[in-house]
Amino acid sequence: MKNSKPIRILVVDDHFMVRMGLSASLNVESDMEVVAEAGNGEAALDAYRRHRPTLVLMDLRLPGMSGTDCTAAIIREYPEAAVLMLSTHCNEEEVYRALQAGARGYIVKSILREELLRAVRAVHEGRQYVDPIVASQLAERRSHRSLSSREVEVLRMVARGLGNKEIASALSIAEVTVKLHVSHVLEKLSVKDRTQAATAALQRGIISLD
Q1: Alpha-helix residue ranges (DSSP H) falling in the chain
Q2: pLDDT in tens, 163-189
Q3: Same domain for 73 and 149
Q4: Residues 14, 45: one domain?
Q5: What does the DSSP assignment read for 23-45?
């Protein structure tokens, strides 16, 4: 039996046409009501404070404050907040970070409308909903041990083509320590050499060269 109160939704996306389309799709459902829209993270946080929606449909990539950072900020203030992340991307590292920030679900924008509604209702009911394609990538991400912040730093320099001596100089650490970090990175990413490590890290979103 459906709850007599509609699911009050805040739609967050930096593209007006996307927000309009999502809101139109959700508002025709008898158990859903879009109570507010926002085009960036700061506006979303303010809208959440004013409207106290029961669910947030949050775009991952927003100008300024990212969707992941906005989710974390909302949940710090309102631990009970239900956030469903929406993205055109299914990068495993971004999915992992979004869920770590407190999002209860993650779907891609190419999702069918029926799946979108199913995801909204599932998250509203307190269940986690992750798109099947995203879930398979997340399982692969979880199969690897997490890299430490120092290992990520070393890996980023490896991807830029720096040698061990250059990395050691840049980080003010011993060259043997760099070699140890690189060895751990190769093991954790299940790759054989530095080139494979850099490629895998870029593909998974662990690092970027921006």
Answers
A1: 16-27, 41-51, 67-77, 92-101, 113-124, 132-143, 149-159, 164-171, 175-189, 194-204
A2: 999 999 999 999 999 999 999 999 888
A3: no
A4: yes
A5: HHHHHTSTTEEEEEEESSHHHHH
Question: Which DSSP symbol is given to 146?
Answer: P
Domain region containing 114? 7-142
* pTM across the whole model: 0.68
- What CATH number should be reported for the domain holding residue 32? 3.40.50.2300
The identity of residue 201, as a single letter, is A
How many Å from the N-terminal Cα to the C-terminal Cα in the chain? 50
CA dist 12 and 109 (Å) reads: 13
Distance CA 36, CA 195 (A): 46
Check: CB of residue 10 under 8 Å from CB of residue 38.
Answer: yes
